[in-house]
Design goal:
Elements: E1 4-5, E2 11-12, H1 17-36, H2 39-44, E3 48-52, H3 53-59, H4 62-70, H5 76-85, E4 94-98, E5 119-130, E6 133-143, E7 149-153, E8 173-189, E9 203-209, H6 215-218, E10 226-237, E11 248-259, H7 271-281, H8 286-292, H9 302-313, E12 332-336, H10 342-351, E13 356-360, H11 366-369, E14 371-375, E15 382-386, H12 388-391, E16 396-400, H13 407-410, H14 412-419, E17 421-426, E18 429-434, E19 438-443, H15 464-467, E20 472-476, H16 482-497, H17 508-521, E21 525-526, H18 528-547, H19 558-574, E22 579-580, H20 582-599, H21 611-615, H22 619-634
Parallel strand pairs: 3-4, 9-11, 12-19, 12-20, 13-16, 16-19, 21-22
Antiparallel strand pairs: 1-2, 5-8, 5-10, 5-15, 6-7, 6-8, 8-9, 10-11, 14-15, 17-18
Length: about 625
């Protein structure tokens, strides 16, 4: 009898010799993969062999590789047989797949019924992660009439039972055994860089079993981590209260999960791109060109655009001998009257970074901004869900209408802005998640417009503890001025007639690549001249307080000194320089002076008083209070 050839290349029928020969060949290939596997991977997953599908197609059998992609569950029998024949693989229980072809990497929003039962890969952010809990994987049922036994794979929350036996008896089955496995559910959400800026990110459930949830593996992916997940897409019934519905959800039964690099940008840069950027950085006017490229369609606000450029570039992180890292994140607050284009500045800055989120304070809570604990829909246990700060780690969070958030919700920003982490302790779950996120926030003054006869800080409905964490605070006023108004009108009218006003600006795509390269490849350190210049400025400002006999305003603190250092490092990145020059230091000092003079100048004394940032009370008024109290005591 002639044997038929199935798509795997294995022979079926009465001629069993070919089957054994093919299985032996597969067994040899698996053994080679096991011997050549990375030691670290073997320690993380000692019971699994990871098969690279692309290498399998090249080194073994392209037809078989394609069959695995389309029928992954049917191939298990062949791999099980091959493992049994191999030597030294007694502990191996699972075959896992990775490195799928490009066509099998599917965007989450494009998942359809045609992908069910196939091996696919999705890329996204872990938005939610449940606890590890035992789960029923298989249940063996026995018919009470004929004794027929059937094994049912359990994929949904409710236990699935056979409805009818082959003998015709209905609902006469009893469970005689069950198999338990460790399980953990994830919710994978589309990355911001993979969707348009105004699209709502889509999600897909994923479930992990066995050694994928081992203590070593579990620490490799946390909420907010970007991952590439490979698995089999499976349909799951949606159960209603009446248990009568034909609706189905989809779930990815994970084969492998690979954390992706958390670099600032996922933009691929060619050798030609890098060459062009290096040549561009050598132009003498490169700094002004970059500043002009930040929202060139908006008139004026040169200092704000310069601040936004430095925020996008960021400072340099230094790891000290103790293991702690210095903060390199730059945070900016825009406080402006209505109609001063604050929201447009936020959107433009966010559009230059793929890893960004825009939130509005009116509809934001602490749980949505930092992290929270929710009920898992799959495991029925508690799950840790990442908020905007964690998802944007390595990028930018644009927070509009900051003062519309409740004060208790705004407090969630404190830890992330200072240490780059988010801590949560709720429902028995205690975790610290990475949140290396820069914050660009905007708000209005308390009364809508500024009172020019009052100090600025009392007009802000923001607590000093939060204000102190912003490196730059820009005050934006809208005051009628004939010359400025005419210039603005001409600019806007010319903008609608042609784009000549943007000739000095880089295209957005070029600017994105430049910023990405600077963030990834340049780590500036303070030069001798720059260090001396910053020290001189700091000592000069501190000496003002000493000359007043210790009773005047404190014009600068160590927080502003750290801010000057971060800003000067960002300025050096704009030139793709690894050394901070004196010009970079001067730019940073100029910006700090500009912001402090606008927000921290005491109207009564005309001096810069940083005490207002910490207490909202000028030092002169505090001295007056002290004098009054001392006078009353003497009386």
């Amino acid at each position: 009898m002639e044997s038929s050839k199935n798509p795997t290349g294995f022979s079926r029928g009465e001629c069993q010799d070919n089957v054994v020969t093919d299985v032996l060949k597969l067994s040899d290939y698996i053994q080679q993969v096991w011997l050549s596997s990375d030691d670290s991977m073997a320690r993380q997953m000692p019971n699994s062999i990871i098969i690279n599908i692309s290498k399998l197609a090249m080194d073994y059998d392209a037809v078989f590789a394609e069959y695995i992609l389309n029928n992954p569950n049917d191939c298990k029998q062949y791999f099980d047989a091959a493992i049994e024949m191999a030597n030294g693989l007694e502990d191996v229980k699972f075959i896992r797949f990775s490195s799928l072809p490009f066509n099998n990497t599917v965007p989450i929003r494009n998942l359809r019924s045609e992908h069910l039962g196939k091996l696919i890969a999705v890329r996204g952010v872990i938005r939610q992660k449940s606890e590890v809990r035992p789960r029923v994987d298989k249940v063996v049922y026995k018919c009470s009439e004929c004794g027929f036994e059937v094994s049912i794979k359990q994929l949904s929350v409710n236990v699935s039972k056979p409805s009818k036996c082959k003998c015709g008896t209905k609902k006469s089955f009893s469970a005689i055994s069950s198999q338990l496995v460790d399980a953990q559910s994830l919710v994978i959400e589309e990355s911001a860089e993979d969707i348009n800026i105004h699209d709502t990110p889509r999600r897909v459930f994923a479930i992990l079993f066995n050694d994928l949830v081992s203590p070593i593996n579990e620490q490799r992916y946390l909420p907010g981590s970007r991952v590439m997940v490979t698995g089999v897409l499976t349909e799951v019934p949606i159960y209603s209260k009446t248990n009568k519905t034909n609706k189905l959800d989809i779930m990815l039964v994970v084969s492998t999960i690979i954390p992706l690099d958390l670099s600032f940008e996922d933009i691929s840069l060619s050798a030609d791109d890098i060459t062009k950027m290096i040549e561009l950085s050598r132009q003498p006017d490169i700094y002004e060109m970059l500043v002009n490229s930040i929202a060139p369609e908006l008139h004026g606000n040169r200092e704000i655009k310069e601040g936004l450029l430095l925020l996008l570039l960021g400072g340099s992180s230094i790891t000290h001998q103790s293991g702690t890292k210095s903060r390199n994140l730059i945070h900016i607050l825009l406080v402006g009257e209505p109609g001063t284009a604050k929201t447009r500045l936020l959107h433009r800055a966010g559009s230059l970074i793929s890893r960004s989120r825009y939130i509005n304070g009116r509809g934001s809570t602490a749980a949505g901004v930092s992290a929270t604990v929710v009920k898992s829909e799959i495991t029925e246990g508690w799950a840790l869900e990442a908020g905007a700060l964690v998802i944007c780690s390595g990028g930018l969070l644009c927070a509009d209408e900051l003062t519309q958030m409740q004060e208790t919700d705004r407090s969630a920003l404190h830890e992330a802005m200072e240490s780059g982490t988010v801590s949560i302790s709720k429902a028995g779950i205690t975790a610290t998640l990475p949140a290396q996120t820069q914050i660009l926030a905007a708000t209005n003054p308390k009364m809508g417009r500024f009172d020019d006869y009052m100090n600025i800080l009392p007009q802000l409905d923001i607590q000093p503890a939060l204000l102190n964490r912003f490196d730059l605070i820009f005050i934006i006023r809208d005051r009628p001025n004939k010359a400025n108004d005419e210039e603005l009108a001409d600019f806007m009218l010319n903008l609608h007639m042609d784009n000549n006003s943007m000739d000095t600006a880089l295209p957005d795509e070029a600017l994105k690549k430049y910023i990405a390269y600077a963030r990834r490849s340049v780590t500036p350190r303070l030069g001798t001249d720059a260090s001396a210049r910053i020290k001189s400025y700091y000592m000069e400002m501190r000496a003002i307080w000493e000359r007043s006999g210790g009773r005047g305003a404190v014009p600068i603190t160590a927080r502003q000194l750290e801010g000057v250092i971060r800003l000067s490092e960002a300025s050096a990145k704009a030139r793709l320089s690894n050394i901070v020059s004196i010009e970079d230091a001067d730019r940073a000092i100029s910006l700090i002076k500009f912001c402090l003079s606008a927000i921290a100048t005491d109207k009564d004394t005309g001096e810069i008083d940083t005490d207002q940032l910490s207490t909202k009370i000028p030092s002169a008024k505090r001295e007056l209070y002290s004098t009054v109290i001392q006078t009353m005591i003497r009386i």
